[in-house]
């Protein structure tokens, strides 16, 4: 039996109508909360904005259009895209403890950015993004080869190998940056913060959002691919094509985020695990909630970064790193909370 794109077979595994209604209610609630957080983000910052100021002060309206709206959109797109990339990587590797930050993908993208900066410093941002994407794609492919050599009964060795592999790539990038006096650039790419986002400096992230949306249309295929190569091919899935599409999607999203805002650790790991504990592993049902939760959590971290040391800012990546590390330890050491 073959599962074609758009097939209802996998979707039918979601459960009875009551379960579907519960899923729809969860999606609606998640997006309502996300809209509320987005409105709060528009009015939080060093320059206080109020509705009356927007109506009477042209400068306040300019701040909203040039800074606040692009920053909020960048946070939402980054959080949603990284969360989707994380769940795709987990399904393809069949391991709940991997994401672009634990597979060397981000570090490979950073190495590509460093090479582009050294070899062609006048290259436009889009060109650097392409170089970083190719580098991230190569780095992810190497990790997939490493993961295949790890015994399936030792799942915790996969993220451990990914962390060691990513650390090796980061060490190479750091050495090159020190030798070429580009260590400051490396620090910016590792910070994961949105204070420099303005209109005209974040538009590449719309491509990342588009890739996340495209992944939704292949959700059934990714769900089947998560069953393994042999089972997937027996069900009629073109496993090689799905695997290639997933790796390309993850690499492009990682490169776009690193180029625009820097590295954001644990986001692609924590969010899919939290959602799967509640909704299961059917990607077509859970992917909208994964994207919304990723965007919402990152937006909360960005808002907290703006208010905790007002008028100074703490990078959103730092705050989410603390939260993500705590949840990651819980996932490793805590008991499962559902059957």
Please tell me the overall pLDDT: 83
SS-based class: mainly alpha
Characterize the biggest β-sheet: none
Terminal CA distance: 29 Å
At the fold tier of CATH, the topology name is: ABC transporter involved in vitamin B12 uptake, BtuC
User: Helix share of residues?
Assistant: over 70%
CATH class: Mainly Alpha
Could you give the count of β-strands? 0
Number of DSSP helical runs: 15
Q: Count structural domains.
A: 1
Low-confidence stretches: 1-16
Classify the beta-strand content into a percent band: under 5%
Order of helices and strands: HHHHHHHHHHHHHHH
Rg from alpha-carbon coordinates: 20 Å
What's the name of the CATH homologous superfamily?
Answer: ABC transporter involved in vitamin B12 uptake, BtuC
CATH-scheme architecture: Orthogonal Bundle
Q: What's the gist of this structure?
A:
The chain has 339 residues and is mainly α.
Describe the structure.
This protein has 339 residues and is mostly helical. The chain has one domain: ABC transporter involved in vitamin B12 uptake, BtuC, CATH 1.10.3470. It is 73% helix and 0% strand. Helix 4 packs across helix 14, helix 5 runs parallel beside helix 7 and helix 14 crosses helix 15. The radius of gyration is 20 Å and the shape is globular. The N terminus is likely disordered.
């Amino acid at each position: 039996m073959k599962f074609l794109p758009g097939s209802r077979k996998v979707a039918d595994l979601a459960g009875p109508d009551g379960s579907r209604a519960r899923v729809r209610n969860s999606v609606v609630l998640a997006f309502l909360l996300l809209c509320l957080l987005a409105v709060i983000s528009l009015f939080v910052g060093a320059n206080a904005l109020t509705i009356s100021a927007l109506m009477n002060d042209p400068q306040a309206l300019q701040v909203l259009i040039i800074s606040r709206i692009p920053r909020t959109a960048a946070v939402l797109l980054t959080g949603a895209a990284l969360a989707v990339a994380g769940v795709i990587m987990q399904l393809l590797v069949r391991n709940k403890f991997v994401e672009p930050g634990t597979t060397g993908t981000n570090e490979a993208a950073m190495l590509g950015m460093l090479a582009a900066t050294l070899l062609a410093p006048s290259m436009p941002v889009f060109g650097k993004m392409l170089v970083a994407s190719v580098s991230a794609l190569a780095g992810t492919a190497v990790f997939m080869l490493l993961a295949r050599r790890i015994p399936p009964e030792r799942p915790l060795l996969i993220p451990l190998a990914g962390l060691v592999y990513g650390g090796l790539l980061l060490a190479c990038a750091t050495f090159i940056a020190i030798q070429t006096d580009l260590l400051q650039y490396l620090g910016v790419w590792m910070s994961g913060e949105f204070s420099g986002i303005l209109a005209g400096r974040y538009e590449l992230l719309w491509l990342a959002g588009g890739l996340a949306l495209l992944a939704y249309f292949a959700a059934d295929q990714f769900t089947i691919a998560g069953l393994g190569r042999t089972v997937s091919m027996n069900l009629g899935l073109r496993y090689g094509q799905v695997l290639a599409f997933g790796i390309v999607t993850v690499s492009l999203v990682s490169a776009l985020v690193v180029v625009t805002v820097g590295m954001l650790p644990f986001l692609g790991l924590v969010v899919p695990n939290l959602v799967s504990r509640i909704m299961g592993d059917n990607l077509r049902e859970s992917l909208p909630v994964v994207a919304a939760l990723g965007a919402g959590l990152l937006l909360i971290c960005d808002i907290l970064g703006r208010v905790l040391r007002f008028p100074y800012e703490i990078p959103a990546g730092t705050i989410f790193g603390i939260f993500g590390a705590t949840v990651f330890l819980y996932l490793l050491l805590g008991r499962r909370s559902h059957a």
